Amino acid sequence: MAEDKDESQEKTQEPSSRKIQKAEEEGKVVTSKEMGVFVVLAAGVILMYITPFFVTDFLEILKDFFRFGIELKSGHSPLESIKKAISLIVKVVLVFGVPLAIVCIISQLLIGGINFSLKAVHWKISKCNPISGIKKIISIKGLVDLGKSILKVLVLGGISFFVIKQNIPEITYLTTTNLTSAIAKIVSFFPEVIIGLLLGLALIAAIDIAWQKYDYIKSLRMSHQDIKDEYKETDGQPEVKQKIRKLQMQAASKSAAENASVDNLSEATAIITNPTHFAIALKYKVGQSEAPLIIAKGKGKVAERIIEKGKKLRIGSMQSPILARAIYYTGEIGEEVIGKLYSAVAVALAYIYKLDNGENIEKPQVDVPSELIFDEFGNNENEDESRDV
Question: Domains, the chain, ranges and CATH?
Fold first, then answer.
């Protein structure tokens, strides 16, 4: 028993769609910092190349800062360079900042979506627990983060070292040339360095995304007991659900039987109506039947069909809401009327028989036992007055 319990608590099952939905509602989605770095750098490089005038302005400002002392001696105000720098920063924020922010949002939507939740930023005292912090550091996730950091240093450092090694003669030559040529030469190294770094970051980002998705799904895994509990929450107890299904099947079967009973109406000798909401067709022949038999019954549309077809077949009828509902809710098609309604039904049948024979008589009172008085929904009304005139 203990082994079965431990096995049921082991989280080995993939998370359900409901579990993932609840995690998203709490602000937990797949995210990758490495992909964010790669996307920002890649988009920044592309923007830099499609807006070369920013690079030119930057080099000019950089040159002015290096000539700061010369400008000061010549009486040229250094504030001009500062104004240019501020103007460039504003332009960069507008032209670079907004597109980069949009690119970051799109990349996150593609990875795991964006779902802000106050639960994610809700302060918990457990977050200040130093023991929990140490556990996170030495956990598998902490070791993976350490491994990613080492991989970044090795990959990006290796790429940078390779590029520098390939261009050592040119870099050494920079010490013998003027500032403008040196800056231009450094800028010429950028494509090679940037492409190498982007390839390295793309590799790291791909590895990180795969890990983050795996770790996200793993953190949401469920035990067999979790699945059972969720099933009970979403679909209800199996016993209750089975009972509901049984009631639905009974209702469907009853409705089908009532519809089919209209075809047997030619056998009926009398119809009791509500006058329109309920209709009961009875068969009774003196000396041939022990008790009146329910040939057809129905409410709503079925009742209307019974009444309409009864008129075409010239079957006698009587309006008695209290009796029609009593027979409807206490008897089934093909069954005899229950004993407690014999007297009431006998009065109704006698009245219909006399009408069919051309007698002009008043409609009689029909007495129904109080426990058999129902409203249109089948609820027992228990009224003191049990007569229907």
Answer: 32-111 (no CATH), 124-236 (no CATH), 254-388 (3.40.1690.10)
